[in-house]
Every structure is written in structure tokens, then in C-alpha cells.
Amino acid sequence: MGGKTLVMTSERLGDICLSLRYVPTAGKLTVVILEAKNLKKMDVGGLSDPYVKIHLMQNGKRLKKKKTTIKKNTLNPYYNESFSFEVTCEQIEVAVTVLDYDKIGKNDAIGKVLLGSNSTGTEQRHWADMLANPRRPIAQWHSLQKSTQYYSVSPLTLLQTSAFFLQ
Q: What is an example of a Pfam family matching this protein (predicted)?
């Protein structure tokens, strides 16, 4: 029997360094996008025009969004850009997405990081460190993950979509 073997490869998308700071008395979360390195090449010339989008999420819904400036022709951008949100940190997630700016067409997502109480691994540890050290900025590097859309989809819609593609 000639079966096919599915090989899963972990594509390197790059890394992002960001700082989190929470001041509980003021209900203020500050996210500083410091820099990124080794970003995946997205343009024909072998470089990218990266920028970072930050979405403040609650229960899968976007509450607020902010973005950095675009850095031209680089795979190792330096930002040091600060963004503040007035929130309580319960059930809040911060979705950080690195995108490649395109003048024509759609901007392509390079990768993302999801930070919050429901995240896992280094992202969850970073969030826990921030909560354990109020008023202190905590900086950490994170590996970018494959980007997915952050829309709430009902299980029924997922079932219908799966059934359609399996026909």
C-alpha cells in the first residue's frame, strides 16, 4: 500500500521582544514593542517592511487595537514604541501580530504571540511575571507563531465549514 507520510515542519517566523507593565491601582497596562529579529522574508527582494499590531482582547472579541510605525527593508526592526491601555487584567489577552506592509494588496501576517492568563509556555510565564511585579516593566523575547484570525466562530459554523470541505 503506497501511503503518504505527512511531515510537520516548524517554520521559523522570527522573534519579538516586548515589555509588559501593569499598574493595578490605575488599571493601566503598558505594552512596549522593543524589537524583532530574524523575521521571515516576505518580499521579493528578500526583506520585509514590518510593523506590529496590538489587539486587546476579551473573550475572543477585540476591544482596542494599536500599531507601530512601519520599518522599511529589514528583518531585524527596532521599535521601542509604547502603548497604554486602561483595563483590568482579568480575562484580558494581548494579541501581538507582526505584519509585512504592502503598498498594493493585503498586508501579510508574519507571525503572532498571544499573551494573557489563558496563554501557554513563555507567553503565560511573561504574563504571570508581569502580574507578580506590579508597576515594573518586564521584558521578554517570544518566538512568533503562525498567525490566525482572532474572530469568534460558533462551533456550528466550524462543523458546517468542515463538512463542506470534506465532501
A: C2
